[in-house]
Amino acid sequence: MTGLRVDSLETPALVLDRARLVRNVGRMAARARELGVPLRPHLKTPKCVEVAELLADAGAAGFCVSTLREAGYFHQAGFDDLFYCVPFAPGKAERAAALADDGCRLTLMTDSLEGAEAAVAAFGNRSDRGRAVPLRFVVEIDVDAYRSGISLGGDALERAARTLDGSGRTGFAGIMSYAGASYGRTPGEAAALAAEHVTALDNAKQRLDSAGLACEIVSFGSTPAVLHADALPGITEARCGIYAFQDLFQAGIGAAGIDDIAVSVAASVIARQPEHNRFVIDAGGLALSKDRSTAGKPFDAGYGLLADGATGRLLDDLIVSAVSQELGLVTTRDGSPVDLAAYPVGRIVRVLPNHADMTAAAYDRYHVVEGGNPEVVAVWSRSNYW
Amino acid sequence: MTGLRVDSLETPALVLDRARLVRNVGRMAARARELGVPLRPHLKTPKCVEVAELLADAGAAGFCVSTLREAGYFHQAGFDDLFYCVPFAPGKAERAAALADDGCRLTLMTDSLEGAEAAVAAFGNRSDRGRAVPLRFVVEIDVDAYRSGISLGGDALERAARTLDGSGRTGFAGIMSYAGASYGRTPGEAAALAAEHVTALDNAKQRLDSAGLACEIVSFGSTPAVLHADALPGITEARCGIYAFQDLFQAGIGAAGIDDIAVSVAASVIARQPEHNRFVIDAGGLALSKDRSTAGKPFDAGYGLLADGATGRLLDDLIVSAVSQELGLVTTRDGSPVDLAAYPVGRIVRVLPNHADMTAAAYDRYHVVEGGNPEVVAVWSRSNYW
User: Which among A315, B108, B116, B372 is least surrounded, fewest beta carbons within 10 Å?
Assistant: First the structure.
């Protein structure tokens, strides 16, 4: 217990509902058990040791990170099986090698033959002060032309794998794909997409096997694709991230309910403007992020959906309709009159975010609550920047 | 000198061109001298002591801050005349009072009668452990129905001023207005808007004078309105912020040239995708922000405009057309072929931001360069969060 209450915090402040978090984590862990696939959760959303501990307790088989700073932070906290799953920039070789030399079991990735060659050159060139632990690389393949990955059309995949395998300082560990296109699909479409990825990964693995390049890792990800997959045969790890926190974008595509959203921003009412049918809160573009991923969707919530400060329960279909750096303007979604009597200056509300990753990144700590209870039971810190 | 080069930084990294900064700061300082009005620059964009020192050297008459955390940070660094110009939330009374008790000459503001009453109640109720320095309040008036301020229609302005004046722990210091509507106007329209604000502020001041409420401060702001104003009679301070850094939004509305933009993000090429006519950089939604304030404008630059890593010179009309958390996809603005041969994996480029405030907030430090010289001459830190 911290002695703090969520409805009397200095605002804006980031709030994390541990009860919802635990439920979300348990649900995905059960899903992974059902599929018989180890789960490698992504820490790019929480960036928080206590959340990683909770995921580990639920059976996580290692973690994904989105920056080497995260890798260092989680390594310091004792988490050693870390997959830095952003295509590797050669300028980061020294830092990655230092982590590996320090005992971090770091896996890296690339999504092109050129990337593989650049990585090998960068690791070969660096001044080798340490124990020269090989840096394991996973190669991303392109299944659905979504964003990245080596095309399976030619022999670039084999060449990339061999390039990484043949270097003293790097190693080839396997392949991965990302079903980014699964966001916004129906459950049936997401399941079909997952099946397409599984087949493509299996074909790629067999080609590499035939070339004498063993895939220890066959990694597949995206929260909706894993949630809805019928089966994931041959997949050695499922990468998912946003499921732990959820957000309005996920709720809008049916991957979560509003009541699953575990992260929110506590904000104070700072002015009522009856002439504009709105009130003003002290959470603006910096506190909420300018993510508008719900824009133009039936679920459009402006810059966020309002909930009660103390309990987290939704309020009157109010949304943050506009932001400046430190101010948010709150109106009803449909333009009907705002019940301004209920929102005096000083009242603390909460804002559910469009995109949890972007919103949480503006804060250095979480104020942890349990369900509808206003007591802040803990304060957890985050690792930001690069 | 740091021994670092901007084109070999670990990326993403925030870059600040001091030569451009100095030129921007000098230009606005000259403009303020021409208008005969003291300049109170806003520190919400830089959040950096060294930038404040540079502004002070150019004649700044105090500063504006956007959070109490900034106030504390600048107070620690010896800057004491600080105007926290976000409508005051009563929950921040204890922290504000502690700053005042510690010797910070902190000015606060409110934009409603209710806000004034809530502030007086909050300061009255707090446990008074210190010297009880009165907290000076400025009241915002609404001139153009842009965002906030007390309407001049009734007697709310006088009542708010008297409420603040009559309390032992608060004081009434004057009035302010913000010409937010000046963004996106032509120079002539911005000048007309400035004149409208000057008249409204003068009328409000005279009303308050008649009521025995003296306005020591008559504060007016927005970068375009001050840039283009014909004269600012009666204004005791001009509040401007973005002019020091500039950004693509400012350039798009004609308030700056592209060559005035002093802040940018260094990023590495991490993959080339000829099949998609694009390359990928390691600066995405977190590193650039999701601000799309140039969207739908002739100047639309996606999530940023590309420049050379070493020199900062613009490159081939390339823009960041899409982002995920850590990746940016770079294409030509008009869809013409990208000269991919020029962008091998590992090349460092710079991205000019849509909105400097939002982009800089993702970093804890600036890598400072001088004009087109790639040497990093200093590293300056920032104060983030709340």
Answer: B372
